[in-house]
Amino acid sequence: MKVEFLSKDKISEVTNVFCDAFYDYPVMRYVLGDKPGYKERLQKLIGFFVSARVYREEPMLGVYNSDGLLTAAAVITLPGDIPTPEKLTEHRNALWKELGPDEQLRYETYGKAASSILPAEPHHHLNMIGVLPSYQGKGLARILINKVEELYAGHPVSKGLSLSTETESNVKFYLHIGYALLGKTKVNDGLETWAFFKPK
Fold this sequence. Notes:
Elements: E1 3-5, H1 11-21, H2 26-32, H3 38-55, E2 60-64, E3 70-77, H4 86-99, H5 101-115, E4 124-131, H6 140-153, E5 160-165, H7 171-176, E6 180-188, E7 191-199
Parallel strand pairs: 4-5
Antiparallel strand pairs: 1-2, 2-3, 3-4, 5-7, 6-7
Helix pairs in contact: 1-3, 2-5, 3-4
């Protein structure tokens, strides 16, 4: 299996992988709360998140199996200040109008907490990386991370790669593959986030 750069017409495929991989992920449950229709609302939230990378012309990476099924994906934020496209603003406003102000507040609360422990210097950020449940444990996440590391290694401004997790069981994995723990912060009583960084 090899890593491919994905075009914008793969948004729905990437969204589907992430929805399966992160169905019960703490951040998703926190942001969306306990209203009915969780699966549909998750699809809209993650769909927006993936679309945001496309609006900003940032990389989407994926791994396909021999049957042409996307089994793992990653999306990355590039270093530097990228202007927010008008279409992204419109999509964001429509999303929160549909999901609700409480969901928007929880999303922004999480974002502020998570970004508070990330490096200030220009760097790549691994926004989201997910593997279909039936393909987890096969090394696909590591393959994707290796490819992302190639991106920042060849970038003239980037100082490295940051990432975060809200699952404590992931902490050992990121430490094992060479990432330094920058810190941990509390989002609310039931949610914490850990930030990691690997310099060039």
